[in-house]
Task: structure prediction
Amino acid sequence: MAGDRAPPSPGAATSADADAAARAAPGATRLPYWSPGLGLFALAWLAVWLALFPAPLLLPRAHGALVPIGFAVAVVANATAVGGGILFIPIMVFGYDLPPLEALQLSIAAQAFGMTSGALGWLRRGAVPRGALAAALPMALAGATVSALLVHASPSLVKAVFGPISIALGASTLALAGARAERTAVPPAAHAALRAAAALGGLASGWVAIGAGELPAAYLMLRQRLRPDVAIGLGVVLLAATSVWLLLLHVVALDGIPSERALFLVLGCVFGARVGPWLADRLPSATLRRLFGAIAIGNGVLFALQAWRP
Result:
């Protein structure tokens, strides 16, 4: 990959993006897995579990399997910027036989915590282009607000939209497996298209919990030939912020979140998410993308068939 890390031409990127790219170079900070924040989260989780739920000791028997599911999905999601919703929704719908709207709510809650945990790792690693983040984030949040509050998700909408989006993201992920990276920073000329991708991704996230990070990252890697670690770091942060915003909207203005299942899914996500940046440093990104792309296409086909089934 050394040959893919060509420096940007003079004036090709903002100073903030250039600084982020420089920190994301081969000598970039590699973070330890454990941090005081994880310890505080674990204590807070225990307090919520024991204090706010009736018969808390019975809950692990019913929902404990969601912890390893959340852990595994969060690892891959934070290593590739392909949101966990692309796996969580099929697992909840086909594996747990939950209604699509409940699966969407759980996916949003899981990503709000899991992707945020991973995003903090990417930010501390120095792999996020700050200028591009400032350009894309308001549009992602605006798109998510429209889809959550103005065009409400319904079971039929979730089923109809998830299939095509999952297939498209799977195909783009497979295409990215062989993409050649040429840039280490986002050129300012790309910000307009990046904003459009973020708005569309935010819109999709309100319906199927995927898109806010995936579409901008895919655009930057495919069209702008941005180096994967920079694009993935940006995508993870965008998806985390959008998921947190959607979680707040669901709790305050919509139907809330299935709290017992979310509690255990979130626990696995937070601890799995911290493995994502570590894994991205050590495993071939092309291998991860091919595997994830194939799974995404398979999930999309299943949903498309179910949506069109009489």
